[in-house]
Specification:
Length: about 280
């Protein structure tokens, strides 16, 4: 069940404190959600989710809210509290860099990278990795993941390049209906001015870096940080030698991956496997 704005308790969690303060400042400014949406260039749905504590206020929204309301660094400070409460420490730094990155490169060996996941797919992944979690907790985790995707729809989105193993397309995460939606959602960003998706087919055999999750985050100053995850644990690398190796591995993946056009064809072929069977005409 969604938390209504009137049900928020600022003493219960940092996220609810953030939502309460956002609603208060918006009302003080006599500003509608539509009006605030135009000022900060975030959707009304996203802002409402933050007010009801259903969405995580990932950067740079807090800075934009402080400017919009003239609140100094109020929301930036609240974000720091929210982050410490809700985000595993090992992923804190990655989230901060992701919001500022000029270029994001991601590899998925078994799962669609987070910035490309649909809400239903994310819920299925979180449910499997957190089987004892309540439906409300799963919905909250999925909403956080959807919040991260705002970075790709920002005023100045990063260049985003994803490489997927073919296994990602074939594994029925969440069941056929979820996979139909997910694979369909992968097709539009396959080859655009700011996004590229390539698939490494089974025919490629083994290749460098073919395990877990890798995210490479390059900032405007051209510095790059690598995040690698596998077996439920992740690690950040920013030393020059390790980052250089991860970049080389990613370049090698590009070299053995299908072109974006051929990748789209393979995604469409995989999509056919998850379409419902048509009943024979009688």
């Amino acid at each position: 069940m969604s938390v209504g704005a009137r049900d928020l308790d600022p003493g219960r969690s940092a996220r609810e404190l953030y939502g309460t303060e956002l609603l208060r400042q918006r009302q003080l400014a006599r500003m509608s959600l539509d009006g605030l949406s135009e000022v900060v260039n975030y959707s009304k749905t996203h802002l409402h989710g933050m007010e009801t504590a259903e969405r995580l206020p990932l950067p740079p929204i807090s800075e934009k809210l402080d400017v919009a309301f003239g609140t100094g660094e109020l929301f930036q400070g609240l974000w720091g509290v929210v982050k410490r409460e809700h985000t595993p420490r090992r992923f804190d730094h990655c989230l901060e860099l992701e919001a500022k990155a000029a270029r994001i490169q991601a590899y998925g060996a078994t799962l669609v990278p987070g910035l490309l996941q649909t809400s239903a797919y994310a819920r299925a992944v979180f449910h499997r990795s957190n089987p004892s979690a309540t439906s409300e907790k799963i919905a909250s985790l999925a909403a956080d993941r959807m919040s991260r995707q705002e970075v790709l729809r920002s005023d100045n989105p990063p260049d985003y390049w994803a490489i997927l193993d073919e296994a990602v397309l074939r594994r029925a995460v969440g069941g056929p209906a979820v996979m139909r939606e997910q694979l369909t959602a992968l097709l539009p960003p396959v080859d655009t001015a700011r996004t590229t998706i390539q698939v490494i087919s089974f025919e490629a055999g083994e290749y460098a870096g073919m395990n877990g999750i890798t995210i490479l985050l390059t900032l405007p100053d051209d510095s790059t940080t690598a995040y690698q995850e596998g077996g439920g644990s992740g690690e950040i690398f920013d030393d020059r030698a390790t980052v250089a190796q991860r970049l080389r591995d990613f370049d090698r993946m590009k070299a053995c991956a299908l072109s974006p056009e051929a990748s789209a064809t393979l995604i469409e072929e995989a999509l056919e496997n998850f379409k419902p069977c048509e009943l024979p005409q009688t």
